[in-house]
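User: I'm preparing a small set of examples for a lab meeting where we compare how different chains pack in three dimensions. I only have the primary sequence for this one, and I'd like the structure in token form so I can line it up with the others. Please keep the answer compact; I'll paste it straight into my notes.
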Amino acid sequence: MNMIRLALSVIVTLLLMVQMGFSQSLPSLKVMTFNIRYDNPGDAEHAWEHRKERVASILYFYNVDVFGLQEALHHQLIYLEEQFPNYERIGVGRDDGKEKGEYSPIFFNPSILESIDQGTLWLSKTPDKPSKDWDAALPRIATWILLRHISTKDTLLVCNTHFDHRGETARLESAKFLKEKLPQMAKNYPVILMGDFNSSPESEPYQTLVNGDTFLDAKKASEIPSIGPERTFSGFKVTPELTSDRIDHIFITSGLDVLRHATISEEQNGSYPSDHFPVFAELSW
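Assistant: Understood. Below is the structure token output for the 285-residue chain.
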């Protein structure tokens, strides 16, 4: 009888060790969304030339596997590609589908992830070509990529976007469109949707995305309580947090867990590297 108990104990211990080893080997993915502010000479001391190294340093420091940028002009992308030669980049200019206008690019680490498919959607009634609709002030895009983890073969769809800053209807219709379109494209794979949504948690576009069982806000889903300021739109100068403009978000679908989340607000000499804070999350799937 004692031998049976001993054998059962050994089996249970081995099973627990296998289970623990399996859980520790599950892949995690560090992602970031960052509105880097377009290169506007009118920004004077906050113009791109004076802060581009700080933008790159944040991405370096957090060692992200996938990051999505907003407001990036072509020459800003060229600079960042030079700083991150081991990453691959996808995305096109929103004005012509080539190099004109702002990009919403996605960078990813090809040593752990491989691209299966990729593309660009215009947030309009004609999403397959450069266009704008509703009350949008400018053409707006969503860049997407289907990524597969090289070692585990787990697959997910990542989308990076930037909603219109003026058109209330355009923001709402963009949210409806992506909420329906992205799960269809991903089929049974999880989805990460990130970007500058110009929409606070109280807004209708945000509520459209999180209502139901499609998307969760990674900040609220984080296993460790999120750190950093509540706002994500900051301006360049360090000031007290008088308002709560949380408009940059990372959303996830089922099949993903949020291990940690942060809104990054490092400053230097009284200023931030962009007028938006980057938002970071580490996910597992």
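A couple of notes for your slides: The longest strand covers residues 113-122. The chain is about 30% helix and 25% strand.

User: Perfect, thanks.
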